[in-house]
């Protein structure tokens, strides 16, 4: 059967139905955008977007539930409307800017409530009358009978509203709408009627991002029959006391209403764009990206872009495997987000307007999550984009008043969320993986200065004592461990650049994990500034069981394994290979403490295997640690368990927040048979493949192929490996063996074999 070869995407031929005719499926057809988290945890669906796009037009079902961070929860019965920007699977809500909602009859200006939607502009809907694909979303609003379709490019997108029988129709734009988790607020907004079919506006949001400016522009496919601005629910009219014009207004609670007389199945389209710089730039983005009114052309171009992105990794497998894998690659290609306008301007960390020169500016860096697997994946298959992201981190450093690389950056703001300084491993891993296009000396100065900051989260005390003191800083156990790893990354780059003194300083700091290991309990334990252990302390309680958490979003029994820079040293600390493996076994076999259970949602608990918690990132490398201790078959067994129970192609398949692609990147690496346990190193850990065949197209034009012979639900254990034509008994894959292309061939069996039982780290 011949495959159709098209210039922008790869198609896959499948036999469909008893007639056996060929239906050509594009790779983007395997994307299941609604795959996300379950129940009260909401959903990771950010709406139609181009790969790494600035705009994501999405249905919002809730704004005040702290757990509905992307705005859309599959279980919610109503849709509030459709806003222009969204996060993807984060643990904190924000964005949801500029809600658009079509209506018929008497228009509502307030959203109403889920149990009484008839009193507001929100509407009931049914999943049976809803569909989503690459760059596309559609739903029928039951209240009005309006069919809504959304599509998006990079900075601009389109609505297509099909109205029912002749009616008084309207399209509301609510500038006060945002995904707030019940905490954030619009500090100021402005809307302006530019002409009889165009509006612009902006709002300033005090939220997770403390000072976030965003502008928008919207053009309508037909002139307004009537247009009106409302402030705090009242029409804006010419009034010398309140307003000098009915064509523009400023305030904290603004709505714009465009009214039309529509006939049966009339279509009104709206083109929209965003900018962090100005309304003029938003208009420029709109006209540059969508000059015409062809909704289907915009959708097709975005779909073709997705096909291009997905073709970077080609797999063979069942339809479910393909849907799960390509949905994961889709998730991993949503963020970080483009954050510059078509003219190259962007709003910087200093709130000033800058011109990007020699790179493309990106935003939304969930670094505590994505340094682990998302960015290591990008360094392999998206080198130019990864270089742009590193340059974005560096200009943020330049613009930072504290001279710090970002911790968790959101649209030109530092959220100060999470811990560590994990821009460091992103930069260092990119350097050692051959990412070109950034100034190496400038990058080194930034990572060193950040690591030496005297003001950030007790780094100065950590450098002096060798641990973060628990009587001066909360989350001290996690911070000590993560600082030590980040410092190892600095040391690696210092050595490569011939900076011997720096290398010695940071390598000493990288060993700080040994200072908080308490052999009497066998776990990492908080220590105060005088060197005394925290008492009482429960290694199996969430946060350590103390009022001020000693462990970040975890127990010590989960976090004690975070020593990726020196796993052999951790094995020695824990008593050798046998003791290390027994302790790992105890993690997976443990009964969760009630203290831990009380802190967890139902969906969080679904991600637990004993005390191993796959739904949160600190556990993501743990399964691979068996391979360091000579029992890689236990890695294989646990990988199969996680892959088959905690991922899938359904709306409730993920057991935790996707966190801007990290959960999905873990899945893809693990399916391909290897994982970056220690970003910044020169090797990956070989696990056990979960799909039969992969071709990874590296950024340098080379291909790296993985094949798993005899793989099945029973044959999950590695029997032998051939790497680039040679027998390979090591559970470690050196980067030098991958970077120029080649092959990794597994033979699988139903019982553990002797392969990989004598591990030696690459030199």
Find the CATH topology of the largest domain.
Answer: Beta-galactosidase, Chain A, domain 5
The structural class is alpha+beta
Strand content: 15-25%
- CATH class descriptor name of the largest domain: Mainly Beta
Taking strands numbered 1, 2, ... along the chain, how are they ordered across the largest sheet? Answer: 8-9-10-11-20-15-14-13-18
In the predicted model, the low-confidence regions spanning at least 5 consecutive residues are 1-22
Alpha-carbon distance between the termini?
Answer: 47 Å
What's the main sheet like?
Answer: 9 strands, antiparallel
**Continuous helix count:** 19
Helix share bin: 25-40%
Give the tally of structural domains. Answer: 4
Rg on CA atoms, Å: 26 Å
Please give the CATH architecture of the largest domain. Answer: Distorted Sandwich
Q: How many DSSP E strands?
A: 40
* Outline type: globular
In round numbers, the mean pLDDT is 94
Describe this structure in words.
This protein is an alpha+beta fold. It has 4 domains: 1-28, no CATH class; 31-306, Beta-galactosidase, Chain A, domain 5; 313-338 and 621-763, GH92 mannosidase fold (2-Layer Sandwich); 341-435, Glutathione S-transferase Yfyf (Class Pi), Chain A, domain 2 (Up-down Bundle), CATH 1.20.1050.60. Helices cover 25% and strands 24% of the residues. It has 19 helices and 40 strands. The strands form 12 sheets. It has a 9-stranded antiparallel sheet. It has a 6-stranded mixed sheet with strand order 21-35-36-40-37-38, covered by helices on one side. Strand 29 (517-518) and strand 30 form a beta hairpin. The radius of gyration is 26 Å and the shape is globular. The model is unreliable at 1-22 (pLDDT under 50).
């Amino acid at each position: 059967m011949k495959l159709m070869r098209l210039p922008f995407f790869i198609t896959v031929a499948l036999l469909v139905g008893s007639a056996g005719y060929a239906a050509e499926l594009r790779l983007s057809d395997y994307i299941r955008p609604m795959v996300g988290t379950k129940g009260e945890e909401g959903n990771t669906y950010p709406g139609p977007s181009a790969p790494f796009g600035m705009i994501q037009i999405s249905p919002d079902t809730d704004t005040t539930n702290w757990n509905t961070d992307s705005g859309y929860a599959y279980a919610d019965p109503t849709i509030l409307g459709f806003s222009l920007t969204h996060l993807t699977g984060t643990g904190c809500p924000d964005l949801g800017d500029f809600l658009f909602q079509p209506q018929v009859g008497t228009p509502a200006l307030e959203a109403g409530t889920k149990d009484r939607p008839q009193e507001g502009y929100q509407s009931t809907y049914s999943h049976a009358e809803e569909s989503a694909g690459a760059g596309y979303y559609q739903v029928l609003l039951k209240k009005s009978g309006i069919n809504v379709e959304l599509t998006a490019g990079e900075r601009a997108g389109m609505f297509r509203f099909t109205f029912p029988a002749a009616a008084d129709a309207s399209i509301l734009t609510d500038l006060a709408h945002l995904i707030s988790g019940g905490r954030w607020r619009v500090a100021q907004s402005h809307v302006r009627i530019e002409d009889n079919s165009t509006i612009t506006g902006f709002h300033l949001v005090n939220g997770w991002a403390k000072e976030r400016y965003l502008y928008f522009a919207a053009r309508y496919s037909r002139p307004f029959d009537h247009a009106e601005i409302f402030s705090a629910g009242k029409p804006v009219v010419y009034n010398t006391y309140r307003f000098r014009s009915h064509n523009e207004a400023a305030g904290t609670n603004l709505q714009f209403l465009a009214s039309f007389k529509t006939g049966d199945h009339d279509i009104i389209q709206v083109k929209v764009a965003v900018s962090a710089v100005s309304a003029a730039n938003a208009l420029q983005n709109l006209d540059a990206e969508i000059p015409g009114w062809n909704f289907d052309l915009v959708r097709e171009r975005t779909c073709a872009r997705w096909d291009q992105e997905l073709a970077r990794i080609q797999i063979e497998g069942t339809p479910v495997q393909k849907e799960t894998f390509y949905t994961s690659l889709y998730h991993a290609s949503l963020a970080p987000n483009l954050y510059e306008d078509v003219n190259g301007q962007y709003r910087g960390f200093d709130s000033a307007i800058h011109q990007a020169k020699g790179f493309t500016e990106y935003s939304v860096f969930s670094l505590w999550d994505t340094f682990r697997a998302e960015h290591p994946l990008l360094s392999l298959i998206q080198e130019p984009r990864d270089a742009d992201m590193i340059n974005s981190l560096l200009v943020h450093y330049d613009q930072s008043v504290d001279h710090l690389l970002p911790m968790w950056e959101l649209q030109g703001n530092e959220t100060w969320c999470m811990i560590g300084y994990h821009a460091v491993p992103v930069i260092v891993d990119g350097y050692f993986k051959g990412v070109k296009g950034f100034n190496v000396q400038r990058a080194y100065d930034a990572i060193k200065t950040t690591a030496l900051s005297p003001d950030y989260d007790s780094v100065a005390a950590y450098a002096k004592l060798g641990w973060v003191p628990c009587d001066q800083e909360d989350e001290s156990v996690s911070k000590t461990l993560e600082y030590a790893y980040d410092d190892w990354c600095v040391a690696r780059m210092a050595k490569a650049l011939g900076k011997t003194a720096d290398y010695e300083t940071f390598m000493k700091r990288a060993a700080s994990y040994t200072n908080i290991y308490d052999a009497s309990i066998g776990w990492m334990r908080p220590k105060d500034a005088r060197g005394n252990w925290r008492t009482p302390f429960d290694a199996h309680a969430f946060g350590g069981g103390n009022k001020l958490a000693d462990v970040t979003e975890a127990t010590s029994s989960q976090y004690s394994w975070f020593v990726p820079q020196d796993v052999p040293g951790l094995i020695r600390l824990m008593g050798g290979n046998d003791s290390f493996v027994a302790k790992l076994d105890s993690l997976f076999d443990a009964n969760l403490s009630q203290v831990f259970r009380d802190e967890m949602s139902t969906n969080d608990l679904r991600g637990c295997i004993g005390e191993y918690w796959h739904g949160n990132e600190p556990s993501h490398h743990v399964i691979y640690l068996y391979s360091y201790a000579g029992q890689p078959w236990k890695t294989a067994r646990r990988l199969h368990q996680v892959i088959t129970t905690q991922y899938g192609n359904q709306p409730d398949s993920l057991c935790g927040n996707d966190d801007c692609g990290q959960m999905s990147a873990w899945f893809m690496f693990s399916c391909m048979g290897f994982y970056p346990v220690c970003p910044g190193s020169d090797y990956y850990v070989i696990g056990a493949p979960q799909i039969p065949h992969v071709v990874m197209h590296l950024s340098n034009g080379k291909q790296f192929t993985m094949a798993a012979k005899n793989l099945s639900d029973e044959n999950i254990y590695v029997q032998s490996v051939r790497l680039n034509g040679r027998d390979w008994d090591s559970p470690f894959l050196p980067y030098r063996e991958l970077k120029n292309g080649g092959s990794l061939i597994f033979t699988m069996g139903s019982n553990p074999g002797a392969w990989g039982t004598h591990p030696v780290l690459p030199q």
